[in-house]
Write a structure and sequence with these properties.
Blueprint (H helix, E strand, L loop, with lengths): L3 E3 L7 H8 L23 E7 L6 H20 L8 E7 L4 H13 L4 E3 L4 H13 L4 E2 L16 E2 L5 H14 L5 E6 L2 H15 L7 E5 L7 H7 L6 E5 L2 H13 L5 E4 L5 H8 L7 E4 L10 H12 L8 H22 L5 H9 L3 E4 L2 E4 L12 E5 L4 E3 L1
Parallel strand pairs: 2-3, 2-4, 4-5, 5-6, 7-8, 7-9, 9-10, 10-11
Antiparallel strand pairs: 1-15, 11-14, 12-13, 14-15
Helix pairs in contact: 2-11, 3-4, 5-6, 8-9, 11-12
């Protein structure tokens, strides 16, 4: 039987949350030494996260951060790793590359141990030359773009499957259903291009191509031109490579224009945020997922996640984005433990320790790292919105 989750009301006073989370009290003092051998002292381990905490993509950053923070708070309550606690310093980039680059410079200057949980392809790409130059690990970015996977960079560790993995499954499901007229609605940036490339690649293997493509600007919900371009092509399905606000705007506008086909999204859209934005208009909208369902307690990682939420006072909403944040933090801690076992936690020992995890199952979730591959997972499955605030898998 499929699992169905009824969402809870989820509201947040962003201004109050921002004042708490963005306090400069988490800044780490500069320490002697440089590069990968730097140990960042013997106290807390400070991670830096640049993410959208305001603006049209805010829920992606908020939810991912909440899941990661949930894990680290409970890890710290148990003594941390080697009696060292883990903290996340957050900076808001509004899902804009220039702001992310500036945040990254600040975080590196503050000597964070690693960069963690960056949200998005264009923002992560803006950070890439900066953390590469200063040899700072970049762990668990919320993106499946191939540009962060190839060429291989030993500083980058991926927890999630790639957009190639997601779009391959979407195209396979559509064509297995006999739906071969496929259009693509994508963000006009590196993220949108990464998803479009994945769809084109999967279709080409079947000797197919999109019947039409259209774009939307990042952080915009102006979808009028895209609807006017795609609707007349009468596709069987539209694959959306964008964030929840523009995805929801497109679904509503396309249906208002008379489009009767189906909508598919990759995981970055933000499933719960999309469901909240669409309400009853979400019925039948499909989203590919790269972490197990946060609503199926039959899975060990989900049971652990839900138990952690309960133990933490039910302050975190269980959804796919918070689940991914929790899982990324969980795997990061395993890398720290390996580093600690080697004698001393440094950036270099963390990298080699995480690689040494090899292929194993963490709370029922298979991961695989090595010295030549830092892509932990190829897990992808499909989910569907029911139109009444629920997600079915």
């Amino acid at each position: 039987m499929p699992s169905i989750h009824k969402s809870r009301d989820f509201t947040m006073n962003q201004a109050g949350w921002g004042r708490r989370q963005f306090s400069v009290g988490l800044g780490a003092a500069a320490l002697a030494g440089a590069g990968l051998v730097r140990a960042q002292g013997e106290g807390r381990i400070v991670l830096g996260q640049s993410a959208p905490f305001t603006g049209p993509a805010a829920q992606l950053g908020v939810q991912f951060h909440q899941g990661a923070q949930l894990f680290f708070e409970q890890l710290n309550a148990q003594g941390g790793v080697g009696r060292r606690t883990v903290e996340i310093r957050t900076l808001d980039d509004g899902y804009e590359p220039d702001r992310c680059a500036e945040n990254t410079r600040k975080l590196i200057a503050d000597d964070v141990f690693a960069l963690f949980g960056y949200i998005g392809t264009p923002t992560s790409m803006a950070a890439l030359p900066l953390f590469t130059k200063d040899k700072v690990p970049f762990f668990g970015p919320f993106t499946g773009a191939e540009s962060l996977r190839q060429p291989f960079n030993r500083l980058i560790f991926h927890v999630r499957a790639s957009y190639y993995d997601e779009t391959a499954l979407i195209v396979r499901q559509l064509t297995n259903l006999g739906l071969r007229k496929i259009a693509v609605f994508h963000q006009n940036d590196a993220y949108g291009k990464a998803g479009l490339d994945g769809v084109m690649r999967a279709l080409a293997e079947l000797k197919l191509a999109p019947v039409a493509t259209a774009t939307v600007e990042r952080n915009s919900t102006d979808v009028k031109a895209a609807v006017e371009k795609l609707a007349p092509a009468a596709p069987d399905a539209v694959i959306q490579i964008t964030a929840y606000a523009s995805a929801a705007a497109f679904v509503r506008a396309a249906r208002k224009a008379g489009y009767g086909g189906t909508f598919y999204n990759v995981s970055f859209v933000g499933t719960q945020a999309l469901a909240d934005a669409l309400g009853k208009d979400g019925a039948g909208v499909v989203v590919s997922q790269v972490v197990p369902s946060p609503y199926q307690p039959s899975r060990p990682i989900t049971r652990e996640f839900l138990e952690a939420i309960k133990k933490g006072g039910d302050k975190v909403q269980p959804n796919y984005s918070s689940m991914e944040g929790y899982l990324a933090a969980r795997i990061f801690a395993e890398g720290l433990r390996q580093a600690q076992a080697s004698g001393k936690i440094t950036r270099e020992s963390f990298i080699t320790g995480t690689e040494a995890l090899g292929s194993q199952v963490i709370a029922g979730f298979p991961v695989s790292f090595s010295a030549t591959s830092h892509a932990a997972s190829k897990f992808v499955e499909m989910s569907m919105l029911t139109g009444d605030g629920r997600v079915k898998t």
